Amino acid sequence: MKKSADEEIKGWVLYDGSCGFCSRWAPLWQRTLERRGFHLATLQSDWVGEKLGLPRGALLLDFCLLLSDGEQLKGADAYRYLMRRIWWTWPLYILSILPIFRTFFDLGYRLFADNRHFISRACHLPAVEQAKSTRKD
Predict the structure, then answer these.
(1) Which helix (H) or strand (E) holds 15?
(2) CA-CA distance, 135 to 137, in Å (whole number)?
(3) How far is the C-alpha of 122 from the C-alpha of 3, rounded, in Å?
(4) Which residues contact 12 (CB under 8 A, 6 or more apart)?
């Protein structure tokens, strides 16, 4: 049976699975994203590096959106793309494209992305896989 246009995969939201914040935040958005045709995967997934054609070091620098047509969006641009497709995030999207706010949005993203592992440690947020392996039963 043919899938309807609403059921087709529009892309993959790729996040750093080794980041405690990212590995907790991304799954919270999973249902919202999947309803819009986007699926989650970690940047560490075997297929991701091959598909994006990036070495591991460069691969883990930014949140990434891989669209089904092969287009890649990274960082703040990936967030803007997704916010534009979720009606209740439109106010943030609009702010993020206005000239002065765009600069602040981009700087805020970069600052967070560059310090996400420090933030995760400071907030005691180990990566999900790490938390599972250190949990005492």
Answers:
(1) strand 11-15
(2) 6
(3) 44
(4) 38, 39, 40, 41, 48, 65, 66
Q: What is the pTM of this model?
A: 0.83
Q: Is the pLDDT of residue 100 over 80?
A: yes
Percentage of the chain with pLDDT > 90?
64
Q: What sections of 1-137 are H helices per DSSP?
A: 20-28, 30-35, 46-52, 56-59, 75-84, 90-97, 99-122, 128-134
Question: Encoding tokens for residue 58?
Answer: 């460069």
Encoding tokens for residue 79? 């967030």
136 Rama class: left (phi>0) / alpha (psi -120 to 50) / beta = beta
The answer to whether 49 and 56 are in contact (CB under 8 A) is yes
CATH numeric code, 10-134: 3.40.30
Task: Read off the amino acid at residue 113.
Answer: A
The Cα 66–Cα 64 span in angstroms is 6
Residue 125 pLDDT grade (very low, low, confident, very high; cuts 50, 70, 90): confident
Q: Is the pLDDT of residue 110 over 60?
A: yes
